[in-house]
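Key result, reporting period 2: structure in, sequence out.
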């Protein structure tokens, strides 16, 4: 269960204009920890609501990729091309703490929703802009997507097998990195405002964020001049026993990186004779004779399946893991013990959503409300800002034509 207590961002209101994944992922982190995130969406909802690969949920406007980063938020659907909608947002901004957006540079300003517009009505506002390349530099106007940043940042140059060429990560890794960086940036700005009494403009670039996560490979080159290559499934430690190996029914990932673990691996596999083999005496020897060492290990590993070896080797002190699929890991008791997956009631029934990636002793993150329908909280949010029922009806009425 999540820890009781006041959550870190309770009392913080976020006007969230973000779309797709990186920006909504950022505001979702704040929402789980208590922020009142008001997602401002076009009438009918953003395109990601209707994306594949789950046709039934897409038809509901609740595609899982959209839902997974929009729980805990309230929803205000307005046509931002209408001047009265912009005026209403500025009224909401008077009591807001944070504005978040992930449009290309200049788009929000052209709508009358740029940083300078918001700070006229609220000088202490924190305005966080998430984009592919940031709002400065020669690439600032360039559109960016997760795949483009994976390719450009160096992620793909390091991922994959040399004989097969670069490989894209199997999930939107750079979107997630950019979103988590933005959440940390907003948290930092909120803390700084508490200490200094000043709002500010926060410029988050996905490319910059990706490079911070790639810092070992970057510094390996900038300091040592070493250009890393694709290593397949080998660990960055370059240990030949920290790699993927065939077993009876598939594959096992070994994470054996030191002498103690290596000895435990050989003992559990019944290969203690290899300790006396000069081909494998030191790590340098093992690297030089990697093919021979792999042949020895895989011959022994062929006697059991991946999960059998996972249990035996882990118990023996040799770190490893079978290749778990998503449907398998979500039922793992380790996740249940840490409340990683949290269930929230919705009009579709209970929804299992991914909660925060860390725990607090008190005031921890939790999912309180399901992902909202477009405009679900129009009346509630606008009434809080002092709009009359007639004004609310006029603001949210379908645009003629």
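The corresponding designed sequence is given below.
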């Amino acid at each position: 269960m999540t820890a009781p207590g006041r959550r870190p961002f309770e009392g913080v209101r976020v006007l969230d204009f973000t779309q797709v994944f990186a920006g909504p992922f950022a505001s979702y982190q704040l929402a789980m920890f208590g922020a009142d995130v008001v997602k401002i969406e076009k009438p009918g909802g953003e395109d990601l609501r209707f994306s594949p690969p789950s046709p039934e949920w897409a038809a509901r406007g609740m595609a899982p990729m959209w839902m997974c980063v929009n729980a805990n938020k309230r929803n205000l659907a307005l046509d931002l091309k209408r001047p009265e909608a912009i005026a209403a947002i500025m009224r909401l901004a008077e009591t807001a703490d944070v504005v978040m957006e992930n449009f290309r540079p200049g788009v929000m300003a052209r709508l009358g929703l740029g940083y300078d517009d918001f700070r006229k009505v609220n000088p202490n506002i924190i305005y966080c802009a998430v984009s592919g390349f940031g709002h400065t530099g020669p690439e600032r106007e360039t559109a960016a997507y997760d795949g483009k940043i994976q390719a450009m940042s160096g992620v793909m140059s390091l991922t994959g097998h040399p004989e097969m060429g670069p490989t894209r990560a199997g999930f939107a890794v750079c979107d997630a990195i950019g979103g988590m960086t933005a959440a940390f940036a907003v948290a930092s700005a909120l803390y700084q405002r508490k200490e200094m009494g000043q709002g500010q403009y926060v410029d988050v670039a996905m490319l910059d964020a990706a490079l911070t996560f790639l810092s070992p490979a970057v510094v390996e080159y900038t300091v040592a001049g070493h250009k890393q290559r694709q290593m397949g499934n080998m660990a960055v430690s370059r240990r030949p026993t920290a790699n993927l190996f065939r077993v009876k029914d598939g594959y096992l990932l070994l994470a054996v990186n030191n002498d103690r673990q290596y000895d435990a691996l050989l003992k559990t596999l019944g290969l203690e004779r290899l300790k006396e083999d000069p081909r494998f005496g030191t790590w340098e020897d093992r690297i030089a004779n990697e093919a021979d060492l792999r042949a020895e290990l895989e011959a022994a590993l062929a006697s059991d399946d991946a999960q059998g070896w996972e249990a035996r080797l882990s118990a023996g002190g040799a770190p490893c893991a079978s290749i778990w699929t998503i449907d398998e890991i979500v039922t793992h008791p380790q996740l249940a013990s840490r409340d990683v997956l949290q269930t929230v009631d919705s009009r579709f029934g209970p929804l299992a959503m991914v909660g925060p990636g860390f725990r607090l002793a008190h005031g921890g993150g939790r999912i309180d409300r399901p992902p909202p329908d477009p405009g679900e909280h129009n009346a509630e949010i606008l009434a809080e800002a002092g709009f009359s029922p007639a004004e609310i009806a006029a603001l949210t009425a379908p645009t003629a034509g």
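The chain has a mean pLDDT of 94. The longest strand covers residues 36-41. This case is discussed further under Risks and Mitigation.
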